[in-house]
Design a protein that fits this description.
The complex is a heterodimer.
Chain A lengths: L1 H34 L9 H10 L3 E4 L4 H20 L15 H21 L3 H32 L4 H9 L7 H17 L18 H4 L5 H26 L11 H28 L8 H21 L4
Chain B lengths: L1 H22 L5 H26 L6 E3 L8 E3 L3 H24 L6 H4 L2 H14 L3 H19 L8 H27 L7 H6 L4 H19 L8 H7 L2 H26 L6 H23 L3 H28 L3 H36 L10 H4 L1 H14 L6 H15 L6 H33 L6 H4 L6 H19 L1 H16 L26 H22 L4 E4 L17 H4 L1 H11 L3 E5 L10 E5 L3 H21 L7 H22 L1
Antiparallel strand pairs in B: 1-2, 4-5
The chains are: A mainly alpha, B mainly alpha.
Chain lengths: ~325, ~675
């Protein structure tokens, strides 16, 4: 009985993350449009877009290989699995121990690897430029991400996300300077990984500075639907990760009563919707930057992460 | 028993090498030599595996050859058994691959006799139990591999590669000779048993470690001793390249572990600081070098340097933990390093086999002339892709598991008492993360430019799939990458006796964990389950695809490339190897490698083509070897006058040398 309940809780998470992801994108776009004094598409538009793309005929280039057709599903699956393993509304999910923070970041790496290869499959300049820049951004973001993991592991002694959430939600850790720095680094990494302004512009298609959209330029139909859904899911994943690492309050912790779970879901939804509103506000305030300024941006994240670690070495009080 | 079987296989390999000298001219020689090598390697592999898993005692076997008073000692303990497994796994695969690949060999007389001898040399190094046997086998291994490197000595650059390799190999052996000399002490106790019993002082231990780092490190490819490696490894035939990169560098790692963890006792903690610094530099520089390459085999060789760095990070951590008596943490770090030894030997061999298949099919090693091979060589492409994903440390494959274990060991480092190590290890961790991401970029480039896109040359357009034997080997190795990735617990358990013997502790038994996940320290601290991740990936991917095909549409249409409305039929408009690496070259390369990019753009109306030139400098050549070589050449030039003296002057020279020596002796007394 307990096992069935556990599996049901995990199943709820699996379908919750996928159901909510396009909504976040819709909210973000709506808020951004309002900030630019446009009316903007309806909040549910991303669902309709994905549904429409799924039903369209897929157009493949003559020389597209099997890799090109498999990659969208692999990308989607990898991000979905990663998203399903992050504790969102409860720390008690039965499979959350099968991957820790490092493994989840690496799973996103698998998705990126597949997509970058797919970008090079047809042999166009756009696909290549996107793949090449995507890998550059990853190489700049990953050291900063590791330092965030290191900071958390220093405080809690683990990289297991459910344990981290439990410890942080309890009062034992409290507010710390190094956690603030780690949050700063994490936000920068999340912006870069999700191809948001100022690193990349998700709204353009033909700017030479673009990265993600250039990589998937050749895709159409159901394959594009998978990629769009994966992008939405990835944004949701980073929001959930931020919530889980830095503000796990309201989560159902070692409590399997339906009330606690319902409260957990509500708290999680409220937090990520708040982040979805915050994101476009930040985006409208800055401009897209040149490619060769990425190292400065992500170097800032790296420096913040390093500072967080070294502050903790100097004193556990920070 | 296992020692005896190992030696018997070595004898068989040497016998077939001798036979090959006679029959190499005939067509039957290729199947005979590779077939016998394969059989010998499989037998040795089986017995070593049995020894490792059975963990029975390992008596020393003394043969009456070698130094008259000493004899030759051989012993197969857990560490040797593990490395014997690695060596013979690679050896068996390379022999089998050679059965197919070797038929295209233009100069079999230069390859066939040396190949089994080289395998025998590597086996002997691992089996040796005294310094003399070890050094002789080491040098034998170096020389036979050198002969294989210069097998195609007329191809441009190969002769130079052979020369540099020979110089570096002699330097490495010299360092090891001195290290063993110090360990043997004034009595000349050359047997490893005697060295183990004699505990050298702290200073001696540090010097021995430094010399070992030079000697074994130069063979393994630690920066800045790596310069020969990317020249020599690609020069050899591809199955030998696989052995050199996949196996011989591991034999060098074996030499380091044998001395640093077994013979020298317990060195001071600060020695690990040096190892870690060198390892971190090796990791990042190795992958950056690899990214700048456009020769497929050279890219793979440079990338070996990176992986050696990862292995040495694990070893350095293990040394640090051991010096501070944190045995459980040392066990974790050592497990990570040994796991990566196995992993790298598998996927690097696989990738070299793939590169060999491409070379056979197209005659090209330069990626700028390849492309689109996924259509012409689908099976090779699929196995090469698995190798690329595994080496880029992507879950659920095996490369990720060993890097994950290394990260877990890094995350324990705050518990170390020394501030120097505390500060150093997070930086090493960040560099490791950087190198993992760069490795992914490097292999997106390697696979994307070689196998994807449109063919850039006639040869790539008409390539043919590799022969079935080579394919079978590649598929088997891709399978190992996969199985070791989703069931890593069994590999960790198999490593336990080795780790127990060297670190004094071992990880908890992994195959007993629930759901076969791996839990290196304790439940609730960190765990990873490749099996579940893989199952979930497979389930969610297929379910999504089935859902879309069933409830949405599966209609597909083929059409021309879109490319935003302006497709260009020329294949030169694709992203090439050097353009893919350009952003990374700009960001990381301008300071480290002093990259110079030169664009020669003709004026409007001028008909000559535009030219783009990139020059990448290896700082090791510029700052270490260049000045050294100039100094040696300059000194030799100045001493050259001594060659043309009169007899009178020669006699004066001899006489004054005698006087000086007598004075030295007098002052000494």
């Amino acid at each position: 009985m307990a096992l069935i309940f556990d599996l049901a809780a995990q199943g709820l998470q699996v379908f919750l993350v996928i159901a909510v992801a396009p909504l976040l994108l819709g909210v973000s776009r709506k808020v951004k449009a309002r900030l630019l004094r446009r009316i903007g598409p309806p909040v549910l538009q991303p669902y309709l877009d994905i549904w429409k793309l799924m039903h369209k005929e897929a157009v493949l280039a003559h020389n597209a290989s099997w890799l090109y057709r498999v990659a969208p599903y692999l990308v989607f699956a990898a991000i979905w699995v990663a998203a399903a393993l992050i504790p969102t509304y409860s720390t008690d999910l039965p499979f959350s121990w099968s991957a820790d923070l490092i493994a989840i970041v690496a799973l996103l790496g698998t998705a990126r690897f597949a997509l970058a290869l797919a970008g090079m499959d047809v042999g166009t300049a756009f696909g290549g430029i996107g793949s090449s820049r995507e890998m550059l951004i990853a190489s700049l973001a990953e050291p900063a991400m590791l330092l965030v993991a290191f900071t958390v592991a220093l405080l809690i002694g683990t990289t297991q996300l459910s344990t981290i959430a439990t410890q942080f939600a309890g009062a034992s850790v409290g507010l710390r300077v190094s956690l603030g720095l780690a949050l700063f680094a994490f936000v920068f990494v999340a912006i870069a990984e999700n191809a948001r302004i100022p690193i990349d512009n998700p709204a353009t298609h033909l700017e030479l500075t673009m990265v993600h959209e250039a990589m998937v330029l050749e895709y159409s139909g159901r394959h594009l639907a998978m990629i769009e859904a994966a992008a939405a899911l990835k944004l949701q994943l980073y929001f959930s990760l931020l919530v889980c690492l830095f503000v796990p309050f309201g989560m159902a912790i070692n409590d399997k009563s339906p009330v606690a779970l319902a409260l957990g879901v509500a708290a999680w939804m409220a937090k990520i919707l708040f982040l979805a509103v915050l994101l476009p506000i930040g985006e409208t305030a800055v401009a897209k930057m040149r490619v060769f300024r990425y190292p400065i941006f992500l170097g800032g994240a790296f420096a913040a992460g390093a500072l967080a670690v070294f502050l903790l070495f100097v004193s556990k009080g920070f | 028993m296992a020692t005896f079987v190992g030696l018997w296989c070595v004898a068989q390999l040497l016998a077939v090498a001798a036979l090959a000298v006679v029959i190499a001219g005939y067509r039957v020689a290729t199947p005979i030599v590779y077939g016998v090598s394969f059989a010998a390697c499989v037998v040795a592999l089986g017995s070593a595996l049995f020894q490792l898993l059975g963990a029975s005692s390992a008596p020393t076997l003394v043969l009456p050859i070698g130094l008259p008073t000493l004899g030759a000692h051989f012993r197969l303990d857990a560490l040797s058994a593990f490395f014997l497994v690695v060596a013979n796994l690679g050896g068996a695969a390379a022999s089998l691959y050679g059965l197919g690949y070797g038929r295209h060999e233009a100069a079999p007389r230069r390859v066939l006799p040396f190949f089994p001898a080289y395998l025998a040399g590597m086996n002997l190094v691992v089996l040796a139990d005294d310094a003399f046997t070890f050094l002789v086998s080491w040098e034998f291994m170096s020389l036979t591999s050198w002969a294989l490197v210069v097998a195609h000595h007329r191809v441009g650059g190969n002769a130079r590669a052979g020369y540099i390799y020979l110089v570096m190999a002699s330097f490495g052996t010299l360092s090891l000779l001195l290290a063993f000399g110090l360990l043997a002490g004034p009595q000349g106790a050359y047997a490893f048993d005697a060295m183990r019993a004699a505990h050298p002082g702290a200073t001696t231990a540090a010097i021995v470690l430094g010399l070992t780092l030079l000697g074994a490190g130069s063979k393994a490819g630690l920066v800045p001793l790596h310069v020969w490696l990317p020249l020599a490894h690609p020069a050899a035939p591809s199955h030998v390249s696989a052995l050199m990169s996949g196996v011989m560098t591991k034999i060098a790692v074996y030499g380091f572990i044998r001395i640093a963890f077994d013979l020298v006792g317990e060195p001071a903690w600060w020695t690990s600081l040096i190892v870690l610094a060198l390892a971190a530099a090796t990791t990042v520089l190795g992958v950056l070098y690899a990214l700048m390459q456009h020769d497929l085999k050279r890219l793979l060789a440079y990338h070996t340097v990176e992986n050696i760095g990862i292995i040495y990070i694990g070893l350095g951590l293990a040394m640090a933990f051991r010096a501070d008596h944190m045995e459980w943490a040392a066990a974790l770090a050592l497990t990570a390093a040994l796991f990566h030894v196995l992993n790298h030997s598998v996927f690097k061999s696989l990738l070299f086999f793939g590169a060999g298949a491409v070379l056979t099919a197209t005659g090209e090693r330069d990626m700028e002339h390849l492309g689109g091979l996924i259509h012409r060589m689908p099976r090779t492409a699929a196995t090469f892709l698995i190798g690329c994903a595994a080496i880029s440390a992507l879950p659920p494959l095996n490369g990720f598991v060993s890097e994950w274990l290394t990260f877990q060991a890094i995350l324990i480092s705050p518990q170390l008492p020394q501030l120097g190590l505390k500060m150093m290890v997070p930086a090493v961790g960040a560099l490791l993360a950087l190198s993992a991401a760069l490795a992914a970029a490097c292999f997106v480039k390697a696979f994307g430019v070689t196998f994807l896109g449109r063919p850039r040359s006639r040869a790539a357009e008409t390539a043919r799939e590799a022969d079935p034997i080579s394919l079978a080997v590649m598929i088997a190795f891709a399978g190992i990458c996969f199985v070791a990735g989703i069931l890593p617990g069994f590999v960790i358990d198999a490593l336990a006796p080795v780790v127990k013997a060297l670190a004094g502790a071992q990880l908890p038994r992994q195959s007993a964990m629930s759901w076969l996940s791996i839990v290196p320290i304790a439940e609730g601290r960190s765990s990873y389950n490749g099996l579940i991740i893989f199952t979930f990936l497979l389930m969610s991917g297929t379910l999504t695809a089935m859902f879309i095909h069933r409830f949405a549409t599966r209609a597909t249409r083929r059409s021309a490339i879109w490319d935003c409305g302006y497709p260009d039929p020329s294949t030169a408009t694709q992203y090439s190897s050097s353009s893919f690496a350009m952003p990374i070259r700009r960001v990381f390369g301008t300071t480290v490698f002093q990259v110079q990019e030169k664009v020669d753009m003709p004026a409007p109306g001028d008909n000559r083509p535009a030219r783009f030139q990139v020059r990448v400098f290896d700082p090791a050549w510029r700052f270490a070897y260049g000045p050294l070589a100039r100094f040696v050449a300059g000194t030799a030039g100045r001493l050259n006058v001594l060659q043309f003296l009169t007899i009178r002057r020669y006699l004066t020279l001899t006489f004054s040398a005698l006087i000086v020596l007598l004075l030295v002796v007098a002052a000494w007394r």
